[in-house]
Structure formats: structure tokens, C-alpha cells
Write a structure and sequence with these properties.
about 65% strand, single chain, mainly beta
Amino acid sequence: MFGDIMKKLIALVGFLSFFLIGTAAAEESKLSYSHVAVSYFDGDILDVGADGFGLRGSIGFASSWFASLEYNAGELEGADLDLDEIAVDLGYHWGVGAKTDLVASIGYSKIDPDVNVNNLQFLSDSANGYDLNFGVRGKPVDQFEYGVFVTYYNGGDFNSDVQLSGEARYHFSAPVSVGVKYRNSDDFDYWGVDLRYDF
């Protein structure tokens, strides 16, 4: 497991180094941190197929701070198990160029399982925990945006884990964009698409 974590961290450092070369420090980027989005995801959780939908809202404030709230509703295939997740994050971003930001945040997540057996629903114990996130966002041209993040989960009911995620986004106009996302950790591996509106 430690080897896999190191590989993910090395990959992230390499990615960051590639995109940060030649950027001017302490510049303010034009990336938006205030938006709403609706998403669909599909993949594997604990080697079981899963899919679902999500809603996310984020608001930027005090120049470089942002707060976000996310809700995801998923279902495991063939397991009669629904999962509802709520995640709250508080973060800060540093402009390292007119087109690039470094981003850090701390968050809290809660997952509620809902088991359905013979059309009878049972609520199992919920799980909750905390996470730390670090990554880079960039918008090299007006139409294209990218992001890559590493997340460390620890505390509460979650096992310690490192997650690597990335996204690519195309802007149809200044406020409207569509994104493709991918996330990977020891427990899950899935991709998603979303439609986002910046304000």
C-alpha cells in the first residue's frame, strides 16, 4: 500500500512541476470558485459496480477563500445498497500565474448506507471522517480548464487512504462548462461527467 501511495505522490509532483514551470509567482488567476454543478458518476467501489448522481455548490469569499457543499447519491449493482454522501470543504487558493492556482482545503464527509432486502429498508450505521486536499487548477486558454488533486483521508470511521483525482473541462461560454473527472484510491475507481455554471 505504501508503494502505491508513493507512486501517486510522485505522479502528482511531476504533474505540478510540469505546469508550474515558467509561471510568474503571486499573480491573480482568473479561475472561478463560485459555481453550482450537477454530475453523474460510474465505476467500482470495493470491486463492486456503482453509479449515481451528485450536486455541488461552491462560493468564493474574502479574495482567496472558498467553501463547498456536495451531495452524492449512489447505488451498488446487485447489492441492494444505496449510499448517500455529504461533504463540506473549506479551502484557500494561491495564484502562481494568471492561468494557474495552487489549492488546499480541509473537509468533512458523512456516508449513510440504506440497505434494501425483500423491499424492506434498513438504515445501517453512518460513517464520517475528515480529509486534507492539495492540488493545482489551471486555465491555459479560455475554453479549457484542468485540475489535479491528491486527498488524504483520516480520522473518524474512515480508514487512512490516499486518493488521486483529475479533471478536464470545456467551457462553452464564460459561465457554462462540461467536465470529465476521474478518481482513484484503494477502495474505489470511478469516472464522472458534470455540467457546471459559474457565477
